[in-house]
Design brief:
By secondary structure, this protein is an alpha/beta fold. The protein folds into two domains: about 350 residues, no CATH class; about 140 residues, Rossmann fold. A hairpin with a 2-residue loop joins strand 4 and strand 5. Helix 2 crosses helix 3, helix 6 runs antiparallel to helix 7 and helix 8 packs antiparallel against helix 9. It starts with 13 loop residues before the first helix and ends with a helix.
């Protein structure tokens, strides 16, 4: 794999000046991103974060995933959450502080990858682009989503892959596969980065006689994280639940959209992700053209193209295209930005234009980045965590979940269980109480899928058996996604069961909307005495 070296410092020191400008720009960019992330450490957890946090909390208590809480996601993210909470504390800020470090680690890896491909200048520009793009509200950047973990693992795999090809070392090939396997373990979409490594190895390997051995070593590394996970879950006695939720049920999880509608959803979500930093994305588009017109950059076309395709495919499962999924495509977008600016500098230099013009591409990029941040100054510098959450998630009860969880914690003992009718697993995390049912999400119960009624009946049996001290009924549409074809058995049961066994203990209305509320019920005294 041919690697680019940074251009030599000219007699007049012009490139040195450009590099100094770049380093100053990167330092300022990282400072802004650090300020934003530190200021928003306390942003309330949303559902995915709440799920990982609760599962991580159980893991720290010695409870394996899928035993007391069912999830369609692979267990890598909840294991990372458990690790971060063990280090930084079981709090909102502790979780987001951990992800701040993860984000900065990804920024550093992008710098080293782009530097190996196109030189120091490209590395600096790429790192600055990713730092700002990945904190954007349009991709829910400050939330602790599993997509950030996929990106970190995939970037580790990518840098090791480049080094492995350069040095022809099987140990690095194995480690590269291992990290791509970890990307899959973080969430199912990460599986699309494993073929990226296979394709690149196949293209870069000059000795076809050793290709089969290299691919075997890589595949062994990629399979190892999942194989070990299956083994651990088997001995923990939860393999059947794990397999059902992450593969049998998850395989049918989708938006139900036809191809044309899926394209419209993708288009709308992509435009939303691009909008706050549209000029930066234009620079990335120009960078993709440089792969064809710049002979020096063209040497990296297969690596960049394969990474772009893998990143795009990672967005596609289920045709849902949620905002935070676009985090997975930001690394290659940022690398393309770096290539574009670097090619522009080289073009000016090679045409022997006045030395002063050589810094123009860097200055233009810096101005574009600064203007994009300035246009979003409320989000970057003044908005409170609660205001950012409300703007991003509208009437979802993420802010209210904190006070509800604290109330439940204060009015119950650690041995008590609670149940949430709805999809608000963050309440369990805040309350530090175990769920009376493994169904911490209500979405599967409402979907047009063959297990819906069976799942409702199982959830009901678990709640009736556990007799939770508190029952939380979330009357928010986005917590259920109930539609005309949904099975309504659980609502008829809930009305009768709550009336017979519970008294109202409190209510929270979301943004003063009377039809969006969260009701908290406490088990009647005479019933509690029979527990």
């Amino acid at each position: 794999m041919p690697l680019r070296k940074s251009p030599k410092v000219t007699a007049g020191g012009n490139f040195l000046d450009i590099e100094v400008i770049c380093w100053v720009m990167l330092l300022l960019t990282l400072s802004v991103v650090l300020i934003v992330r530190l200021r928003l450490l306390g942003i309330p957890l949303e559902r995915d974060e709440g799920e990982y946090a609760y599962l991580g909390q159980l893991l720290l208590q010695g409870v394996p995933p899928y035993k007391l809480a069912y999830s369609m996601k692979l267990p890598g993210a909840c294991a990372v959450y458990a690790l971060l909470m063990a280090v930084f504390g079981e709090t909102i800020k502790g979780i987001h502080l951990g992800f701040l470090i993860i984000n900065f680690a990804s920024i550093a890896l992008i710098f080293f990858i782009a530097k190996r491909l196109s030189g120091t200048l490209a590395g600096i520009i790429s790192a600055a682009a990713y730092a700002v793009l990945s904190v954007s509200q349009s991709v829910l950047g400050v939330q602790a989503h599993a997509t950030h973990l996929i990106v970190l693992a995939a970037l580790c795999g990518s840098i090791l892959l480049l080094k492995a090809v350069e040095n022809d070392r099987k140990s690095l090939i194995f480690l590269s596969g291992l990290f791509f396997g970890l990307a899959f373990l973080m969430k199912q979409q990460g599986i699309f980065f494993i073929p990226f490594g296979i394709f690149y190895l196949s293209w870069a390997c000059k000795k076809r006689s050793v290709l089969a051995a290299n691919l075997m070593v890589y595949s062994l590394g990629a399979a190892l994280p999942f194989a070990l996970t299956c083994l651990v879950l088997f001995f923990a006695g939860v393999f059947d639940k794990f397999w059902f939720w992450t593969f049998q049920y998850a395989s049918g999880y989708s938006s139900g959209a036809h191809v044309y509608l899926a394209f419209q959803i993708f288009k709308a979500q992509l435009l939303g992700a691009i909008k706050p930093f549209k000029p930066v994305w234009y620079i990335a588009a120009a960078g993709s053209l440089c792969l064809f017109i710049d002979a020096k950059v063209r040497k990296n076309i297969f690596f960049v193209a394969a990474l772009l395709i893998s990143s795009f495919l990672a967005l596609c499962p289920g045709f849902i295209f949620r905002e935070h999924y676009f985090v997975m495509i930001l690394p290659v977008v940022s690398i393309l930005c770096g290539m574009c600016v670097n090619s522009a500098v080289e073009f000016i230099k090679n045409r022997k234009y006045p030395a002063a013009f050589q810094s123009f591409p860097v200055i233009i990029f810096t101005v574009i980045l600064a203007l994009s941040v300035f246009q979003q100054r409320d989000y970057f510098f003044t908005a409170t965590p609660e205001r950012v959450s409300r703007k991003a998630y509208a009437e979802n009860p993420f802010i209210e979940s904190i006070s509800i969880g604290n109330y439940l914690k204060a009015h119950s003992s650690p041995e008590d269980t609670i149940a949430v009718l709805g999809s608000e697993p963050q309440i369990y995390f805040y309350a530090r109480r175990r769920s009376a049912t493994g169904y911490i999400y209500a979405y599967p119960l409402m979907e047009n899928q063959p297990y819906a009624l069976k799942m409702q009946e199982e959830m009901i049996r678990e709640i009736e058996f556990q007799k939770p001290l508190y029952l939380v009924f979330v009357k928010v549409n986005t917590s259920w996604l109930r539609h005309g074809g949904s099975e309504n058995f659980i609502f008829r049961w809930a009305q009768n069961y709550i009336t017979e066994h519970y008294d109202i203990a409190g209510a929270t209305f979301i943004s003063k909307q009377p039809f969006s509320s969260v009701l908290v019920y406490k088990r009647k005294a005479e019933t509690v005495s029979n527990l």
